[in-house]
Here is the input.
Amino acid sequence: MAVIIRTERLTKKFVDLVAVDALDLEVEEGEIFGLLGPNGAGKTTMLLMLTTLLRPSSGTARVNGFDIISQSHQVRKSIGIVFQTPSSDDTLTGYENLKLHGMLYGMPKALREERIKEVLKLVDLTERKDGLVKKYSGGMRRRLELARGLMHHPRVLFLDEPTLGLDPQSRETIWEYIEGLSKREKISIILTTHYMEEADKLCSRLAIMDRGKVVALDSPANLKKVIGGDVVLLKIGNPDLERVKQLEFVKKVQVKGSSVALTVTNANEHLFEILQTIGKVESVEVRVPTLNDVFLSYTGREIREDSPEGGWAERMMNYQSRS
Amino acid sequence: MNEITGILAIWYREFKVFLREKSRIVASIINPVLWLLVFGGGLGSSVRISGLNYQAFIFPGILAQVVLFSSIFFGVYIVWDRKIDFLKEVLVAPISRTSIFVGKVIGGTTDSLIQVLILLVMGWIFGTTGFIPGLHLTPFSFIAAFLILIVTTVSLVSIGLIVGSQMESPEGFQLITTFILFPIFFLSGSLFPINNLPRWLEPLTLADPLTYSVDALRQVILGTSRFSLLHDLSIMAMFMVLMIALGTYAFKKMKL
Here is the structure.
C-alpha cells in the first residue's frame, strides 16, 4: 500500500498552547482514516495544516507526494474538503455552487457539466439543483458540500466533522454516501469526528488524539481488543474491591465515586462469581467495549459528545493574528 | 489558464449575487438622485457656479459619489465571505491570491459600473428634456466619462477590498469606511469648485484622490476644470497602480 499522507513532526503552537504536538502519522492510499478526539484535541488544526490553510509552526507533511509548505498549490489541487461549518454561498443555487467550484479548479466546461451531473446524482440532489442553498435543509447542504468536495476528482478527501449537528437520520444518510464513495471513487478519506459511532462504523484505521498528540492508532476492532475483555459497570454502596482484584479473570479495576468499571474476560460466564465476591450491588451492566471505553482507558477521560463546538481553532487564530 | 478561469469564477459569483440583490441596485440609485434633484435643486435655486446651473455642476460629482460609495462598500462582501465561511472554499482552491484579488476587483467594478450607466442615462434624459439646464451629454462625453469612472472604480474597489481583507466583522468595516468615505467625498470638490479654496482646505482637497476624477469628469462633461485632463489622468493612473499593488499584498497577507 502506498502512503498518501505522511506528517513529519508536524507541530502547531498558538500563543500559549500546543494544538498539534510533533505528530508523525502515515495514511495509506484508499483507506478511511479517522482522527478521533474531544473538542480541542487538535483535529481541526491538523486538518487546516494538511489542507494548507494554516502554516505549521514546525515540521511538515506530504500530501499526495507534495510538501504542504513549499508545494501548497499542488497539494490544493490534489485534495477536496468538506469543512465543519458549511462554506457554500447560500445566495446561489446548488448547481451554481458546483459550477463555481469547477471553475475555481480549472475544469474545462464539458467535463465540469458532466461531473456536476454525476456528483448531484451521487448525493441525490439532482431535483433540487436549481433551488437556492438558503432553502436547503442542514443535511442537504452537507450533501451538496460533499458533492462539491468530490467534484474535481481529488486524491484525498478531508471531512471535518461531516455529520456535526445533523439529526440521526441525515447522519445515517451521510455515512452511506461516505462508505459508497470510498468503494466507487478510489479515494483516500481523512475524517475528524468526536462521535464514537461514526468512527467505529466508517474508519479502517483510527488515531485517537488528545491534547495535540496521538495516544493510540489502530483499527477500531483492534483498539477495542486492547481493552482486553468486556466491561462490567457496577454501582456499589460500600466498595471493597480488594477481593475482586484477586480474581484472575478481572483484568482492570477503575473506581469513580460509587461507580466501578471492571474489565473482565468473558463477563457473561463470570458475572455470578463477581457479584458473589462483591456482595451488595445497587446496579450492574455488562457490555462489549466501545471506543468510548478505549478513549477512557487511554486518556482517563470520556469524550463528551454534547460539549459545545465553537470554531475553537479559528478563535485561536484570530487571537494570534491580533496580538 | 487555470488562473483565468479562477478569476472568471470569482467574477461569476459576484455578478450572480449582485443580480440577486435587487434592493441594492435600487438603493444605490435613489441616493444619488436625491442629491442631484433635492440637494442640487434646492441649493441651485440660489447658487450658480461659473455660469453653470448648480445641478449640472454637481452632476460629475454625483457620478463620482455613486462610484465611491458602491465601490468601497463592496469590500464588506469579503468580510461576509469570511463570516459565512465561503472564504475557505476560495482560499483552499488551487488559484493564487492575486487571482482572487483580481476577480474581486472585476466583480466590484462591474457592480459599480452598472450603477454608473443607469445614472449616466438618467443624466442624459434630464439634460435633453431640459429638466437640468446646461447638462448636455454627447456620445463623446458619455464614453469619456465612463472610461474615467472605470479607472476610478478600480482604485476605490481596491481600497474597499484592502480594508475588508483585514477586518473580521461587518460592523468594524462600516466604522472604518465611514471615516474614509465622508472625507473623500466632501474634500473631492464634488459639491463645490476647487479654484478659490481657503488656504487650510486646499492641501486637503489636493490630497484627495477623488478630486482628480471629479475634475476630469467636469472637463469631459461640462468643459470646465482646474487641471488639465492629462494631469488628472496621470494622477488617477498612478493611484490605481498603487492601490492594485497594495491590494494584492493585502490579499497575500490575508488570514482565514
